[in-house]
Amino acid sequence: MSPESKKLFNIIILGVSFMFIFTAFQTCGNIAQTVITNLNNTDFHGSGYTSMSIIYGVFSASNLISPSVVAVVGPQLSMVVSGIFYSLYIAVFIQPATWAFYTASVFIGIAAAVLWTAQGNCLTVNSDENTIGRNSGVFWALLQSSLFFGNLYIYFAWQGKTRISESDRRTVFIALTVISLVGTVLFFLIRKQEDTKAPGEEDSANEILGDSSSAQNKMMRAVAAFKKSIRLSFTKEILLLSVTTAYTGLELTFFSGVYGTCIGAVNRFGSEEKSLIGLSGIFIGVGEILGGGIFGLLSKNNRFGRNPVVMLGIVIHFIAFYLIFFNMPNDAPIAPMEGTDAAAYMIPSKEVAIFCSFLLGLGDSCFNTQLLSILGFLYSEDSAPAFAIFKFVQSICAAVAYFYSNYLLLQWQLLIMVVVGFFGTITFFTVEWEAAAALAARGSDYSSI
């Protein structure tokens, strides 16, 4: 197998592993608040929104140390251990206890920071400036396939149910725990960097994946990675991209947790309201997969760079927000267990709700594939710190969004995303234009990125 084939193999295994883990975790996130609402008349008093806020808050703080962890432990083992913690969090729902639920939320926040930093490092060291766009798209399409499979099961298993029984809950979460563990084991198939690197890549790769086993050198690499993260945080490019990244954190919260809860709370959808949560997740996944596949496959032939894709993403999201505003009751995100009988500016339509799910997924893929691509391109030699900063900003904004989702009506949540999305698109354009100018100065073809 040629070095290039080995690198593509690594990207595919990386994507498939994440697909299994996030089939479990994203399905869990999508149904958590609905499941918990059905538990709140027992001794369990947790909140899905609060749990997610804890996860993303800890996630954001942990990104300060995650490059050091990856530098010392290595990306492969980092992802394996992180995957185990994801599985433990999901397993908590089999027999929920409030203390275990919130404790697991803290640990998965730490694990998520390490997992995504290691993922960014693995993606970058198996790519170059000619393949980073393709590899980002392939990874994203495989990752977001997770939204399809888990939610397809939820759609059929919960068809016609207005209340989720203890048996239904246990069956779902036992299956999701096993699926997460399968994805964790698959990380062992990733070839180590020394087996895949091409000539000339050694210096940048060893900066994170050095072979020395001495404790002193490991500590030096950990400290160097931490210092590099702090230094990169204040560069112009990272500060500008942080606005775009902040938007992806807000809309991630909305489509992965809030929107499914809104659909499940609308009583006018009748007996299908709970199964529609699964169908919504499926169509978010279809949009993500379609976007990741198209923008990955077409990246080699894109003469105009990343800006048109990001512009497409924000237009799609604005259309989705507009339709959701007209279709969903304002109190849907914070409705009680009995749901809401209110209507918005039109009679709630299941077809419009599911179409908006597709638009949310498609628009999200536009932003994330291009952010992964530009970070891998700009910081090919500093991939772990750069991706740690990316996840730090994204996760802290997701934590804030999950917190205010407990209190804000739907219209205000949509308005916040519109404002941040608008400015995030402008700042991305600025960085991309500068990247294009730098590439032209080097005499490279802009369409290769």
UniProtKB/TrEMBL annotation:
GO terms for cellular component: membrane. Its main location: membrane. The chain crosses the membrane at residues 7-26, 46-65, 100-118, 138-158, 170-190, 238-256, 276-297, 309-328, 386-404, 410-431. It is a multi-pass membrane protein. It is found in: Membrane. The keyword Membrane applies. Keywords: Glycoprotein, Membrane, Transmembrane, Transmembrane helix. Belongs to the unc-93 family. It comes from Sula dactylatra (Masked booby). It comes from the Eukaryota. This is UNC93-like protein MFSD11. CDD domains: MFS_MFSD11. The keyword Glycoprotein applies.
